[in-house]
Amino acid sequence: MPTRLLPPKDKPDLTAKEICRRIKDEFDHVELNATEGQDQVGSMIETFVRLRAPKAILDWHTRVRDTAVHVWISDDPTDELAYVSFVAMDGGDVFIGYCSQQHEDRAKPIVERCQSALGYDWMDK
């Protein structure tokens, strides 16, 4: 099951740049790719158009696309399952998907550190 980390309602939203800075401060193995992040947001927008999503969703994703960054994090880059990846977007949630239950289990400590570094809330925890 995917994980969503949500910005707290009582604090200012983080920019993608600030999310990346905090993640880089917390982890030794981080890869950031703005082109990939922007491409992923572009794919999301195409899907939302096809699904006839509300205009507000399209507008928000269009607004944050140019600053989106794909983030990849690991404590051990040789471990194929102990990693987390997501797209950092200005004022957005952190949505983390997994390829298997084993991946989710191995990534949990990384997700917990992300939550702490960002000061975000864990949805449904």
In short:
With 125 residues, the protein is of the alpha+beta class. The chain is built from four helices and six strands.
Description:
By secondary structure, this protein is of the alpha+beta class. The chain is globular and about 40 Å long. It contains 4 helices and 6 strands; from the N terminus they run E-H-E-H-H-E-E-E-H-E. Helix content is 45%, strand content 21%. The strands form 2 sheets. It has a 3-stranded antiparallel sheet, with no helix packed on it. The protein has helices at 16-26, 34-50, 55-64, 101-118; strands at residues 3-6, 29-33, 69-74, 83-88, 94-96, 121-122. Helix 2 runs antiparallel to helix 3 (55-64). The chain has one domain (3-119). Strand 3 (69-74) and strand 4 form a beta hairpin.
Salient structural properties:
125 residues, alpha+beta, single chain, 4 helices, 6 strands
Please report which band the strand proportion falls in: under 5%, 5-15%, 15-25%, 25-35%, 35-45% or over 45%.
Answer: 15-25%
Task: Kindly report the spatial arrangement of strands forming the biggest sheet.
Answer: 5-1-6
Overall SS class: alpha+beta
Question: How many helices in DSSP terms?
Answer: 4
How would a textbook summarize the main sheet?
A: 3 strands, antiparallel
What is the N-to-C order of secondary-structure elements (H for helix, E for strand)? EHEHHEEEHE
Helices, strands, pairings?
Blueprint: E1 3-6, H1 16-26, E2 29-33, H2 34-50, H3 55-64, E3 69-74, E4 83-88, E5 94-96, H4 101-118, E6 121-122
Antiparallel strand pairs: 1-5, 1-6, 2-3, 3-4
Helix pairs in contact: 1-4, 2-3
